[in-house]
Write a structure and sequence with these properties.
The chain has one domain. Helix content is 80%, strand content 0%. The protein has five helices and no strands. α2 (21-36) crosses α4 and α2 runs parallel beside α5. The chain binds zinc ion (ZN). Zinc ion binds at residues 21, 24, 51, 55, 57-58.
């Protein structure tokens, strides 16, 4: 009984909106496109936004895609 209670508390501690790595990575390209388009991606994808804050690995994927997109934007604007 005591162990069940500890498991229950641990489950409560997890953010219920956080969809996990697989779900966050499924939308990361859309998320970057929305950011680039000036759309409020965190409001449109609150679960993914929470996950990018909580998960270092997924945040690095997001930051890498943003950096790649920014480089591409600069290249396409240069003559
Ligand atoms: Zn993750």
């Amino acid at each position: 009984m005591h162990q069940r209670w500890i498991l229950f508390v641990l489950l409560l501690d997890a953010d219920p909106r956080d969809p996990g790595c697989d779900a966050a990575r499924a939308v990361v390209h859309v998320y970057v496109d929305e950011l680039r388009a000036g759309i409020d991606a965190p409001t449109r994808n609150p679960g993914a936004a929470d996950h990018f804050v909580a998960c270092d690995a997924c945040r690095q994927v997001l930051q890498g895609l943003v950096a790649t997109a920014a480089t591409h934007d600069r290249a396409s604007h240069d003559p």
